[in-house]
Amino acid sequence: MRPNQDQSTARKSARLTGFERLRSTLRLLYHSQSPKAQRFQMSVLVVDLAIIAFFIASPLLREYESFLWIDYSIALLLAADLTARALASTDMSRWVRQLPVIMDIFILVTLLAPTWFFNLGFLRILRLWTLTRSSTFWRPLHRRGLSIYRETIQAVINLLVFLFVVTGFVYTAFANRGTDSIAGYVDALYFTVATVTTTGFGDITLPGPGGKLSSIAIMIVGISLFVKLAQSIFRPNKVHFPCPQCGLQKHDPDAVHCKACGHILNIPDSGYY
Hints:
By secondary structure, the chain is an all-alpha fold.
């Protein structure tokens, strides 16, 4: 029976169309753990981080003639990545409904029409948040046994994303309005950090009731993110390993028994399941 099964598998492989072979190859590159796939995933991650750096610096680069060329080039890269990830998925209709994918599509639209969506360009930094929703972002940590710091790193990234999104919003909505308003992107960043940390020097303020309400919202959300970051830093490190019996998600890295039900655990040495 085994030779017949092998022959049947070979015939099925031979009948695969070029499109199906492409999807199979992309699926292996994006989701497998082979050395070739790991090199590919690391290359994609480096390109993504470079794109995010461009998004952060965009307000300072808009005046240069080459800005639009870089903008459209990044749009092509992001479109190619989205297309490849869609082909690598097992269910495209389900994949496209995921929130990180929807946000990436929106970011792509702002890149393709930078003039029309100029005032929404600051939302591109959300690409950093969507990147952390992918397992590709975390695999280097897992391979090095550093996954116990995942929660702390995620809290830092959430705070950075919030800071730059708010900075972009403040710069777009309040730049050059009133004597004490925002004069440039650096002023917007300075105001955002001072407000989030509740330092409140008062040398830069947002004008009008809208400015005051915006400042209140920034302080409330910012403090919440700071508290989350402090908790992830100072509380004991936990690993994510669901208990097979009671479902408790987090345990001490060296735990042998579940503290909720006493079930024997088998947590991998890498510290992450």
